[in-house]
Design a protein that fits this description.
The longest helix has 17 residues. It is globular and about 60 Å long. The strands form three sheets. A seven-stranded mixed beta sheet has the order 1-2-3-4-5-7-6, with helices on both faces. A three-stranded antiparallel beta sheet has the order 8-9-10, with no helix packed on it. Helices cover about 45% and strands about 20% of the residues. The protein has 14 helices and 13 strands. It is of the alpha/beta class.
């Protein structure tokens, strides 16, 4: 990636806010000393409300970090307890009020599709978030990971299983509510006010290059994808021996086409038919035109200015539609 200019720096993954300010500054300085960085990069730190005391927020404001992404998840105790979150609703609100005094660019995460969450409670969640007047909101459907307490509770019948119809209803409430308030749904799960889209998220969904640092971190150079070993001890051992422990795959033309379909359909920019023709060839364009016909007729897809987009009707079905458009060798 020699010659490329770093546009965004993102501290994410686990809970990077547990790092000291000195450690964060050291990492930023190391990036600046090893890479070309733009004059005004977006530098984001992910954090949980329970990690953001008034002192920590003030200290972070003295670093180069200019954007916070805060994992609120919900403003209701019953939801937070079900998700086994360490913070409570009051801590979430308090930390956001403190953060707003130091940072102009703040994003929060909210979760929908939670068992037992009524449409009314989801609407109240959104109303609380809107009252904070934040520039960016990311919202995701609850998923159940293997070998978690939530999975075991669902298996035992202590908690109701996830309901796709309920999650879809929550998503429609989400999009209609935020769009009325001036937010743009620029990617399926991301909503930003004008000029407040996450530059990091946008780069990812547009297939730009990125470097991932740390255990399990992924990197992409445009043609190859690599991922570091997940084991912390082995990762550190590799650093000590000046050997990076990672795996790599080279993406075929078909792999790149399928990834572009998957990511492009999630965004307001859609899939460029001209890009398909120029970068992948006529075979792929013909395939895409043929495979999309059924979804176009059903009103799930539309073509405007040679860009293929999901319609509002098709948005929640996007993953399934994308898989129908994949090229299978």
């Amino acid at each position: 990636m020699d010659g490329d200019i770093v546009q965004t720096i993102y501290f994410g993954g686990g809970t990077p806010s547990v790092c000291s300010v000195a450690e964060i500054n050291q990492m930023i300085e190391t990036i600046y000393s090893n890479y070309k960085v733009s004059e005004a990069p977006e530098i984001t730190l992910e954090a949980n409300p329970d990690d953001l005391s008034e002192e920590k927020i003030a200290a972070l404001a003295c670093t180069n970090i200019n954007r916070l992404s805060i994992g609120v998840q919900s403003f209701f105790e019953e939801d937070l307890q079900l998700m086994n979150r360490a913070h409570n609703a009051n801590e979430a609100l308090h930390c956001l009020e403190l953060a707003k005094k130091q940072f102009a660019n703040i994003s929060i995460d909210l979760i929908y599709g939670i068992p037992g969450m009524s449409q009314e409670r989801w609407q109240k969640n959104l109303n609380i978030a809107l009252a904070l007047d934040l520039p960016h909101i990311s919202s995701y459907a609850l998923t159940v990971e293997k070998n978690t307490a939530l999975e075991k509770f669902i298996q035992k019948g202590t908690i109701a299983p996830l309901n796709d119809a309920s999650a879809e209803a929550h998503y429609h409430i989400l999009t209609s509510t935020l769009e009325k308030e001036g937010y743009i749904n620029y990617e399926f799960s991301n909503f930003g006010k004008p000029n407040c889209f996450s530059q990091n998220n946008t780069a990812y969904w547009q297939g730009k290059k990125y470097i991932g640092i740390g255990p399990s971190a992924h990197s992409f150079n445009g043609k190859q994808r690599s991922w570091n070993i997940a084991n912390n001890a082995l990762y550190l051992k590799g650093i000590d021996s000046n050997k990076r422990n990672f795996e790599m795959e080279t993406l075929s033309n078909t792999d790149r086409f399928n990834e572009y379909i998957m990511t492009g359909l999630r965004t307001i920019w859609g899939v460029s038919l001209l890009k398909i023709a120029n970068e992948f060839g006529s075979q792929y364009l013909i395939h895409l035109n043929n495979q999309s016909q059924t979804h176009l007729k059903k009103g799930l897809l539309e073509i405007e200015n040679k860009q293929l987009h999901l319609t509002k009707k098709g948005k929640f079905l996007g993953d399934g539609i994308a898989s129908d458009l994949f090229f299978i060798n």
